[in-house]
Every structure is written in C-alpha cells, then in structure tokens.
Amino acid sequence: MVKAVVLGASGGIGQPLSLLLKASPLVDELALYDVVNTPGVAADLSHISSTAKITGYLPKDDGLKNALTGADIVVIPAGIPRKPGMTRDDLFKINAGIVRDLATGIAAHSPKAFVLVISNPVNSTVPIAAEVLKAAGVFDPKRLFGVTTLDVVRAETFTQVYSGKKVPSDATVPVIGGHSGPTIVPLFSKVSPKFEIPADKYEDLVHRVQFGGDEVVKAKDGAGSATLSMAYAGFRFAEAVIKASKGEKGIVEPTFVYLPGVAGGDEIVKATGVEFFSTPVELGPNGAEKAINILDGVTAREQELIAEAIKGLQTNIETGVQFIKNPATK
Ligand SMILES: NC(=O)c1ccc[n+]([C@@H]2O[C@H](COP(=O)([O-])OP(=O)(O)OC[C@H]3O[C@@H](n4cnc5c(N)ncnc54)[C@H](O)[C@@H]3O)[C@@H](O)[C@H]2O)c1
Ligand SMILES: O=C(O)C[C@H](O)C(=O)O
Q1: 188-199 pLDDT, tens per residue?
Q2: Which of 98, 115, 146 finishes a domain?
Q3: How many structural domains are present in the chain?
Q4: Residue 211 sits in a domain of what CATH number?
Q5: In this structure, which residue's CA is closest to atom 14 in ligand 1?
Q6: Is CB count within 10 Å lower at the N or C end of the chain?
Q7: Is the same domain home to 185 and 48?
Q8: Is 95 part of any known ligand binding site?
Q9: pLDDT tens, 21-60?
C-alpha cells in the first residue's frame, strides 16, 4: 500500500501533479492538502476510475495532521511562484515560512515518509526542511529530496532541439549543483551512452538549461512559472522513488540531497565543499541509497560552471540553515 500526499495540491503544479498521482497504479491512497480548494480538487479527481482512494484537506479540523498520517511519500509544491523580474531567491521571504511549517507537520505526523520538496528556492527550502527535521530528531537524509528533475527534463529536451537528434531513450543528461540559474550545471560530457553536442551550440544549450525557468515565467507574463512541465517532472521523480521503495533496482535520478547522510556523499562534499548538492542518486527501498560522484573527468568548461554553482549554493544553503537556527536574525 502506498499513500501519497501533496501539500499545495490546489495550485498550478499541485493540480496536474495530483492528477498524475491519482492516475498512477503505483498509488493506493492520495491525500491532498492546501490552504484553499482541496475539497473541490479532490471531488473532481475522485471521479477518475483509477484505484487510488482520494481525500482533500484544509487547515481546519487538523487537516494537515489527517493528510499526513500514514504517508509514505509527501510532495511539496506549496508556495508562491515567480513573476517576471523576480529571482527564485525573491520567493524566500514567503516560501521559507511555508516550508518550515509544513516540515514541522511532517516531523510530527509522518516522520518516516519520503519528502520531495518542489517549493522554491529549492537550494534554501531543502536545508530548511532538513533543519526542521533535525531539530525534531527525525531527520533521515536518505528520505529528503529537492526535486531538480525539471532541469534534467529540460536538458534532455533542449539537447534534442539543438542537436536535431533524438537522445537515446535510455540516456539521461545529468544535471548537478542546485536549482537556480548558474547553480544548475548540465554535464553533457557525462551523457551515457555518449551523445555529441555540436560545439557551436554548447553555450546556448547550457544557457537554456540554466534559464529555462525564466523562459516560462516571461511567457506566462505575470501568471506564474512552470506548472505542467513541473508536474510531469515531479511525477517522474515521485514514481522513481516509489518504484525503488518497492524494490525495483537500478533507478538513478539526479536530486538535491544532504550529502553527509547518503553513502558516497562525503567524497562529493570533499570535492565541492557544500553539504547539499544535486547529483545522480541511486534510489532504493530506503530512499537515497548512494550519491554518485560524476565530477571526475568533466571538461574544463564544466569545471568552471561547477565552481560558479558552488559559490551560489554556499550562500543559498547558509540562508536556509540560518532561517531555522537563528530565526531572530531574519
Ligand atoms: N523545483 C522546481 O523545479 C520548480 C518548478 C516550478 C515551480 N516551482 C515552485 O513551486 C512552487 C509552487 O508553484 P505553483 O506554480 O504551483 O504556485 P501556485 O501559486 O499556483 O500554487 C501554490 C499553492 O500553494 C498553496 N499554499 C500556499 N501556502 C500554503 C501552505 N501553508 N500550505 C499548503 N499550501 C499552501 C497555495 O494555496 C497554492 O494553491 C513555487 O514556489 C514555484 O517557484 C519549483
Ligand atoms: O522558474 C521558476 O521560478 C520555476 C521553476 O523553478 C522552474 O525552473 O521552472
């Protein structure tokens, strides 16, 4: 039996993500939580004939507790999205508190669940969730993930656009680092099986992967950021976590994790100097079983991109950690 919970289920990401989870044969029970509209969204989805039993909760009547109790996997797309001219870090002021409060609920009501954080800025909201879980004494680094799958999906898509060739279906373009502008580092040299990127397209391709989110924010013109592609990516990652938890072997996805708590992570901390980092992670029954170090043998240009990413990440991570450790200074 798998119980999935979506926190922020009535939003632009939350609704299509809930639709995909409701339609999935991997999910037996689906609980939707938001500060608005969940009874309606749940009623609507309940008419779909897939097997997942669905319920909707609002904050009243212990809604968060009831949604989370018994959860195996909790996906968090709660929080405000960007408008043109904003960076993801501009969302911190509001979203940091939202993620802190939801993580507090998870610590109390579903401390063993896999927690997938979508809310931006991911580079800071994941450290916030980690600090909340640590303070409650229930932090398991193998079970907390920042969802960076949309960067991987974009890298796969744009690679095809720029090369004019189909990326083999068994190939993943690894994207490492974090989830904002220059902290996003696609490693085209590490695509396996090998896939040549035309040299004259390389810089444009990297830029599109790093700033793909801005393209959508601009096109939506004040109506938010990526929602449908994010729901697709969020579902892809949630499905990977669920399949691995059921024993399926060989599932590897890049994701933003707390490295010191994941096997293989220390080596990456040594190389980067940061404790939270997105890297390909082998998933298993307990979550993140192994952080895979793909930093060796990257190109000189990729080396530069990684150094730039680390600078940004250091600040973002510290901002998140301090928000919980020293709330008075915020
Ligand atoms: N990780 C990624 O790759 C990625 C991609 C796209 C968007 N995002 C981020 O995801 C977040 C959501 O984006 P969206 O477009 O769905 O926004 P949205 O405004 O459409 O939806 C957010 C939902 O969160 C709900 N919410 C607010 N406070 C809440 C709380 N305390 N508890 C529960 N629900 C709460 C709102 O009511 C709303 O329904 C944003 O922060 C956005 O930047 C991340
Ligand atoms: O760009 C955004 O603000 C949303 C999201 O992080 C994205 O990459 O699309």
Answers
A1: 999 877 778 889
A2: 146
A3: 2
A4: 3.90.110.10
A5: 12
A6: N
A7: no
A8: yes
A9: 999 999 999 999 999 999 999 999 999 999 999 999 999 9
Q: Is residue 324 part of a domain?
A: no
* Range list of β-strands (E), the chain: 3-7, 29-33, 53-57, 73-76, 114-117, 144-146, 175-177, 184-186, 252-258, 276-284, 287-291
Q: In 118-246, where do the E strands start and end?
A: 144-146, 175-177, 184-186
Question: Of 47, 109, 179, 207, which one is the catalytic site residue?
Answer: 179
Q: Which atom of ligand 2 is nearest to the CA of 150?
A: 8
pLDDT value at residue 293? 97
141 lies in the same domain as 153: no
Please tell me whether residues 207 and 67 are part of one structural domain: no
Q: Which ligand lies nearest to the CA atom of residue 219 in the structure?
A: 2
Q: What is the extent of the structural domain holding 112?
A: 3-146
pLDDT in tens, 178-217: 999 999 999 999 987 777 888 999 999 999 999 999 999 9
Residues 204 and 292 in one domain: yes
Find out whether the beta carbon of 133 lies less than 6 Å from any atom of ligand 1.
no
Summary mean pLDDT of the chain: 96
The answer to whether 123 touches 87, Cβ cutoff 8 Å, is no
For ligand 1, atom 19, name the residue with the nearest CA: 80
- Kindly state whether residues 19 and 38 are assigned to the same domain: yes
Query: What atom of ligand 1 comes closest to residue 149's alpha carbon?
Result: 3
Instruction: Specify the residue with its C-alpha closest to ligand 2, atom 6.
Output: 213
The pTM score is 0.98
Query: For the domain that residue 35 is a member of, what is the CATH number?
Result: 3.40.50.720
The mean pLDDT of 219-244, rounded to a whole number, is 98
Map tokens 């749940």 to a residue.
Answer: 42
Predicted ipTM of the assembly: 0.99
Tens digits of per-residue pLDDT, 61-82?
A: 999 999 999 999 999 999 999 9
Cβ of 230 closer than 6 Å to ligand 1, yes or no, is yes
9 annotated among ligand-binding-site residues:
yes
Q: Which atom of ligand 2 is nearest to the CA of 154?
A: 8
Q: What is the CA(169)–ligand 1 centre distance, in A?
A: 30
Domain boundary at 92, 111, 146, which?
A: 146
Active-site annotation holds for 179: yes
**274-285: average pLDDT:** 98
Pocket probe for ligand 1: among 38, 98, 118, 175, the residue whose CB has the most ligand atoms within 8 Å is: 118
